[in-house]
């Protein structure tokens, strides 16, 4: 069994529909395409004067963030509101867990308040799986990022961005540049691109920022940015955390920028109509030049807009799949 | 009590005995193998046709959790579980609270073990005070209190010169030192073997070099100091290769592996199940195969359970927030029998690795069947099977094998001629 073959039935219901959204691993192309199609339809909602649809009316969505986030949390809130759900957001790192309450108890308490869906971000890889499997299997769990493991809504909003700008995945070259090792975004993107049929996925980083066996994702490894960017259609830049300068991973931000920073000159090696993406928040002058981040190739702000639509799609699909699963189990129990 | 065990296939790996015969026990010792001595009339007999009688298993690492961690287990509960696994002698590691670095703690453990009476218990003392890796514990006082060896768990001496002197001191008195070789810097923050599975799951890795770098250093220091050394819980193929090289150049070092390391690989982590969170980590299939070969060839002469019982809450969290370890002693015999079933080992070799091998490694008075030796025996049915967890005695239910049907079933465990477990 290789990791990529592992199926994760945990997040699917008896009919193969989403009931949780934990990781993109094991999800078939049809399901990913359905998410993108659904998100496309919600983009129109965002453009209307009244930006609401009633799909989650009467449902309660809890955003539970054990790690700081502004953009992801806000877009999840907006997505839930546009689906007409009641939304509450907890930043748990600053409240109960510091008093010794465990993740388990925090979520059980929220479940007792009749929450229908949890959006969870947590610093431990596998936290969303743990919650869906052991804590609240009856609540739809949406992974808002777990450790280095997965950030599946970011992965899908990146796919939506690519599809809306490039039409399809079949003939694309995509380069993912920077700190692959510590990035849940990179992992989700690699899995999604592979599943959607992208034939040329590249990762560009020094060896210290590449996970062991990254080839298992079906990607080609480049340690030279010019080579890695040559004739690509899409460039996905990753955020470089300050603390990577400690412990010998990199000598300095300056040296990283010199080797792997995306500048106008470097971008010239990509296709003329290449798009530049970044999950944010951006470190200007560390991984990307301002002229590129704000330039004509950049679709970084479009990603934010698409992020709301993707989150609406995933939330509505998981809620309906979880509800169907509940009904199915009740009927079987009778 | 006089007891005769009739018609068993008696296997004693240390003498090469393997035949269907009778065993006669008296006064806690083996009186005779074969025909009963003249005038011997047993007060009790066990009809053991179709069963195997072998030396009671010797487990070099069973965490008893007492004193200090009663929510995880007690001396009574864990030795009882061990007896169910066929164990008659076990060593308990020094990570108790307080740490086993004074003779008072050693005496307390041995008293309670005697009181419980399920298995013999041989404590492993802390090599350094408080297991802090800075100052030597009072090794001779601990030895005189009953400690059979000295170990520091995974937190070995930070300062190599201090370690070197400590080993020379231990060598002076012919004490045995147990190494768990893992380089602290290379392993820091790690949760799983540093390979494709951990990378895929986003779990920080512990590279193979965490073991091999520490092992190479420790072997060289053992050679220089001349200390008696046992290397515990090896996890990598290259690690056992280093042990084999050292043995080949005449260094008398011994080694053990955790039984679960011979069965599981890091691929088991794919669903983030915390039951597979162990330290040192599960490694690759190639590593597991390397460990298996080393057990077969005898480079590794002991298979141990490395039993780590936990309360439920210790495993009820995201993978990285859980405590490492498997509750494993209770299944020692049937789980080990899978190695015979797989064709890796013949039965006498397996029993050697579970009794005579570990007993010799730490010079324990156990692990063989001969007239005059303690009547510590396991009697098991090789044709029956054990459904793991059908009965469960350990306080820790943290076993990934629960529900599995395993080959072989322990029928009797005898300690000093007394039945400590039967089913």
Give the CATH architecture of the largest domain in chain B.
Answer: Alpha-Beta Barrel
Classify the helix fraction of chain A into a percent range. 25-40%
CATH class annotation of the largest domain in chain B: Alpha Beta
- Give the count of structural domains of chain B: 2
- Work out the number of β strands of chain A: 9
Biggest sheet descriptor of chain A: 5 strands, parallel
End-to-end separation of chain B in angstroms reads 20 Å
Say what the CATH topology of the largest domain in chain A is. Rossmann fold
Q: Would you mind describing this structure in some detail?
A:
The complex is a heterodimer of chains A (334) and B (423). Chain A is an alpha/beta fold and 334 residues long. In chain A, the strands form 2 sheets. In chain A, strands 7-6-5-8-9 form a 5-stranded parallel β-sheet. Chain A has a 4-stranded parallel β-sheet with strand order 2-1-3-4, sandwiched between helices. In chain A, helix 1 packs across helix 5, helix 5 packs across helix 6 and helix 5 crosses helix 11. The two termini of chain A are 37 Å apart. Helices cover 29% and strands 24% of the residues of chain B. Chain B has 12 helices and 18 strands. In chain B, strands 1, 2, 3, 4, 5, 16, 17 and 18 form an 8-stranded mixed β-sheet that branches. In chain B, strands 6-7-8-9-10-13-14-15 form an 8-stranded parallel β-sheet. In chain B, strands 11-12 form a two-stranded parallel ribbon. Chain B is globular. The two termini of chain B are 20 Å apart. Classes of the chains: A alpha/beta (334), B alpha/beta (423).
């Amino acid at each position: 069994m290789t990791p990529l073959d592992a199926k994760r039935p945990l997040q699917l219901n008896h009919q193969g529909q989403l009931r949780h959204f934990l990781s993109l691993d094991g999800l078939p192309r049809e399901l990913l395409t359905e998410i993108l199609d659904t998100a496309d339809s919600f983009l129109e909602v965002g453009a209307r004067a009244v930006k609401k649809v009633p799909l989650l009316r009467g449902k309660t969505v809890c955003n539970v963030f054990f790690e700081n986030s502004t953009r992801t949390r806000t877009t999840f809130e907006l997505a839930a509101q546009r689906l007409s759900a009641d939304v509450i957001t907890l930043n748990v790192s600053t409240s109960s867990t510091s008093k010794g309450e465990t993740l388990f108890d925090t979520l059980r308490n929220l479940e007792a308040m009749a929450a229908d869906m949890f959006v969870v971000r947590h610093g431990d890889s596998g936290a969303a799986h743990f919650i869906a499997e052991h804590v609240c299997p009856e609540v739809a769990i949406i992974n808002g990022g777990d450790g280095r493991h997965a950030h599946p809504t970011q992965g899908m909003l990146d796919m939506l961005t690519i599809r809306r700008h490039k039409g399809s995945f079949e003939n694309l070259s995509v380069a993912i540049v920077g700190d692959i090792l510590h990035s849940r975004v990179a992992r989700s993107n690699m899995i999604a691109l592979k599943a959607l049929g992208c034939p040329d996925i590249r990762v560009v980083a020094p060896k210290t920022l590449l996970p062991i066996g990254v080839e298992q994702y079906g990607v080609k490894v480049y340690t030279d940015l010019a080579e890695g960017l040559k004739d690509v259609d899409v460039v996905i830049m990753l955020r470089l955390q300050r603390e990577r300068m400690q412990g010998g991973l990199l000598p300095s931000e300056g040296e990283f920028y010199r080797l792997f920073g995306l500048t106008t000159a470097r971008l010239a090696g990509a296709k003329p109509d290449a798009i530049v993406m970044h999950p944010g928040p951006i470190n200007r002058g560390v991984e990307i030049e301002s002229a590129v981040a704000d330039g004509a190739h950049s679709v970084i702000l479009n990603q934010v807009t698409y992020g709301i639509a993707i989150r609406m799609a995933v939330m509505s699909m998981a809620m309906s799949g979880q509800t169907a699963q509940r009904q199915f189990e009740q009927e079987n129990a009778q | 009590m006089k007891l005769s065990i009739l018609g068993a296939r008696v296997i004693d790996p240390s003498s090469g005995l393997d035949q269907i015969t009778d065993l006669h026990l008296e006064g806690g010792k083996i009186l005779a193998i074969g025909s009963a001595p003249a005038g011997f009339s047993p007060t009790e007999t066990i009809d053991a046709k179709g069963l195997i009688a072998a030396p009671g298993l010797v487990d070099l690492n069973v965490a008893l959790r007492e004193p200090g961690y009663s929510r995880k287990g007690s001396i009574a509960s864990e030795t009882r579980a061990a007896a169910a696994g066929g164990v008659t002698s076990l060593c308990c590691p020094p990570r108790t609270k307080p740490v086993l670095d004074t003779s008072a703690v050693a005496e307390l453990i041995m008293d309670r073990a005697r009181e419980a009476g399920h298995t013999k218990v041989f404590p492993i003392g802390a090599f350094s005070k408080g297991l802090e890796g800075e100052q030597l514990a009072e090794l001779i006082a601990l030895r005189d209190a009953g400690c059979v060896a000295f170990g520091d768990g995974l937190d070995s001496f930070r300062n190599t010169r201090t370690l070197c002197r400590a080993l020379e001191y231990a060598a002076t008195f012919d004490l045995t030192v147990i190494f768990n070789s893992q380089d602290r810097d290379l392993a820091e923050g790690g949760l799983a073997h540093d390979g494709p599975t951990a990378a895929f799951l986003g779990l920080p890795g512990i590279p193979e070099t965490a073991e091999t770098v520490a092992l190479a250093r420790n072997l060289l220091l053992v050679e220089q100091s001349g200390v008696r050394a046992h290397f515990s819980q090896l996890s990598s193929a290259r690690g056992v290769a280093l042990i084999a090289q050292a043995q080949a150049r005449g260094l008398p070092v011994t080694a053990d592996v955790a039984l679960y390391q011979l069965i599981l690989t890091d691929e088991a982590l794919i669903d983030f199940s915390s039951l597979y969170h162990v330290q040192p980590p599960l490694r690759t299939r190639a590593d597991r195969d390397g460990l298996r070969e080393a057990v077969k060839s005898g480079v590794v002469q002991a298979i141990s359970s490395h039993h780590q019982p936990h309360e439920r809450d210790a495993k009820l969290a995201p993978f990285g927030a859980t405590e490492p370890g498997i509750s494993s002693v209770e299944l020692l015999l049937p789980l080990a029998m899978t190695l015979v079933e797989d064709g890796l080992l013949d039965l006498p070799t397996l029993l050697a690795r579970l009794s005579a091998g570990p007993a010799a490694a730490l010079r324990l008075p156990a692990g063989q069947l001969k007239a005059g030796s303690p009547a510590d025996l396991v009697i098991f049915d090789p044709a029956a099977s054990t459904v793991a967890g059908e009965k469960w005695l350990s306080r820790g239910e943290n076993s990934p094998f629960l529900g599995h049907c395993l080959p072989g079933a322990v029928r009797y465990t005898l300690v000093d001629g007394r039945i400590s477990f039967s089913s």
